[in-house]
């Protein structure tokens, strides 16, 4: 992880290094190894260093190519270095940044088609006075920007962009509404572009842009595709190929020059990452970090202990009791959160703080495991294709997996059947009825003030979110999986973890966002990902020799995060809470008028964010 930032005077006037300084200041936690600047006439670039890969120590970003003057600033980790070294005929040990600059010089804007890994970068090309920028396929690295007739400004975060003196610091209020409604409908993922600042946008994952004096040309360079599995004839074939791809994804993310860790839960996703990391040849020393409780009835903690024992890495517990014992620190960590959406991330904040105290600068996780191995509307497809008994068994199995009654599974099956049999005219009527009535009901249940909701047309945003969800194609397995992989909540979730970790100078790496693994999973038949209601079936089978059976076939879901949030709320002085609620009353209803959980944390986070505006 590092920080990138810069600006372009689109009218051709000379820019100064001083314009970059406030941007660098805002990104300081991302740059524990220092910051460097580059100025060339109308363009200025900056790079905040966090040298987490072995080759990065040779970097002197912003990196300039003397013959052409092309200059790059990048936050990057490339996973296909050997392939690039050969293709670029590079005979010296080049850094990831240098390989990216050489790729641009050889392939131009198509250079991104040759890059594999996590990256966000910008290249100033003085030959035609343009700025080229790109963001990785899944959005692991952030990129925000502002553009008007006179200026183009970019940075790793929206806050760093508005720190530039030429960018108006104006709040985009509809995003406040997204935040206040997010516990009712996931408006954080309404699109790839919105930020809390007027005219400041996020570059969507898998996109590139070219900025000149007259145009800002934004285009998609990657659309997920499905890897063919026509050569496979047995479960064993699928499992072997999965392990090949998955192990390589983990191995690539173990290339680090600073101490690393794994955020370890009692589940399959992070457990599989830890199991693969242990087997990776030449891996660095790793610690695991886990949020735990001393409640003996809490199954999650017991499963974490099993994961810790199995992977054999150095375990570090992050106890729930730390929240109340160090409540002032936990509250301070909450209030320095860059964006309000992360207000319920008490446990991850505690984990990253603890990891930083142990000197960790790189943290692996398995956050996207659920999404990448999802089967979406599989039951709907089974019923529609006539596999009714299989669909029924899956619903019953899902209920069993979730520790629910068979009746709940049967009821779900009935709902699916009704949906399949429902005439399209009736579906349209139901959708129209939802659009007329449901948005107002959502607002009534939420914490948003109704006057503010009307001012920003919150109903319109709710309807837009619903429409985007309905545009997916549930009857086409591959099309639905591809749409899921580019849905905005993917990058929004990863951006949230990035923001929290960056406060402690930690870089996030998630093997489940590896492009090769994503496309492998898109192509999988449904029954490889789910059987008899059990999700992630291929992962459970593939980990047979790596994880114990009780972990792989654990039933139900349990997460300690809610307990961390509740502990923090209970530890905050009542007068502090009341003051926060008063300060945000223009936006939020009192808790008595809302069904929102963790109303206190929401009010405190919003109050602190608004102070920065």
TrEMBL record:
Binding site for L-glutamine: 96
Ranges for domain Glutamine amidotransferase type-2: 2-214
EC number: 6.3.5.4
Position of the signal peptide: none
Top-rank lineage group of the source organism: Bacteria
Catalytic activity field: L-aspartate + L-glutamine + ATP + H2O = L-asparagine + L-glutamate + AMP + diphosphate + H(+)
InterPro entries: Asn_synth_AEB (IPR006426), Asn_synthase (IPR001962), ASN_synthetase/amidase (IPR051786), AsnB_N (IPR033738), GATase_2_dom (IPR017932), Ntn_hydrolases_N (IPR029055), Rossmann-like_a/b/a_fold (IPR014729)
Lipoprotein among keywords: no
Pathway(s) the chain acts in: Amino-acid biosynthesis; L-asparagine biosynthesis; L-asparagine from L-aspartate (L-Gln route): step 1/1
GO MF entries: asparagine synthase (glutamine-hydrolyzing) activity; ATP binding
Keywords, comma-separated and alphabetical: ATP-binding, Glutamine amidotransferase, Nucleotide-binding
Pfam families, sorted: Asn_synthase (PF00733), GATase_7 (PF13537)
GO BP: asparagine biosynthetic process
Family of this protein: Belongs to the asparagine synthetase family.
PANTHER family the UniProt entry points to: ASPARAGINE SYNTHETASE, ASPARAGINE SYNTHETASE (GLUTAMINE-HYDROLYZING)
UniProt name for this protein: asparagine synthase (glutamine-hydrolyzing)
